[in-house]
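User:
Note these tokens:
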Amino acid sequence: MSIVVIGSFMMDLVVRTFRAPAAGETIVGSGFSRFPGGKGANQAVAAARLGGNVTMVGMLGRDEFGAEMLSVMQRENIATECIRRHEAPTGVGSIVLEESGENRIIVVPGANLEYSASDLAEIEDIIKEASMLVMQLEMDLSMTELAIATASKHHVPVLLNPAPAVPLHDGLLRNVAYLTPNETEAGILTGQTVRTIADAEKAAQELRSRGAGCVIVTLAANGALIVDENGTKHVPGYRVHPIDTVAAGDSFNGALAVQLVSGTPVGEAVRFANAVGALTVTREGAIPSLPYFAEVERFLTRQESKSS
């Protein structure tokens, strides 16, 4: 069961600080780190570490960061033959990470935006044979729309993580089997304020009315809300001490994709993905924080023993 991820690569440049500076303010940070990341790369590695058969598609620069990212993908046993290189620099993410674990991120897409519809035409057969296509919104939007339409044409289910969120038209949503916004993204997609589980349900119902299949709103420590043709289900999260929330959503999406293509019912798949996200935030970095399947199993066993 194969998963194709078309997505971004970002080299994350992380500054740790007690709190983020206010406008015009300079403060002293407590540390600096560099981690490979990007929503597409994170989701691909998350899925691969959990047992997924993953092909990564995207664009890297012909630079040091690009070479490092490609090496990371290969070490994770991800198929890389569909990764292309470009003269534009590899994407970078500038991240301010507070002691609370909260983060503020600015991304400079660079080569990610150079992956085009013409590049996509070369991999249509790979999409056609996939069990699922996983996408985000850090690449060219017209290419993203075409990729989703291509998967739909071949009856390949699409999991779309709409981040960073932008308004999406109903024609695109009708081709999405699983839409996974967080609260902020659900608000941007619908123009609603989403602060509570009831708000999340209202936003998800609107997105379904516009064509999306199953809408799964991630709620950080509160777990996730599933809204589909069977109704609404809240799947609680797991309480942990967060160190770094970067890649938490990406790990959730990678885990969800692996579970769904394995035939796991969506409620159980979300429970597993919640556990993966919880483990991810207890570690620093994007790709370095992503757990392996055995770690998730041990975590779930501990959680079950606590509740019994």
In short: The CA atoms of residues 181 and 217 lie 5 Å apart. The first helix runs from residue 39 to 49.
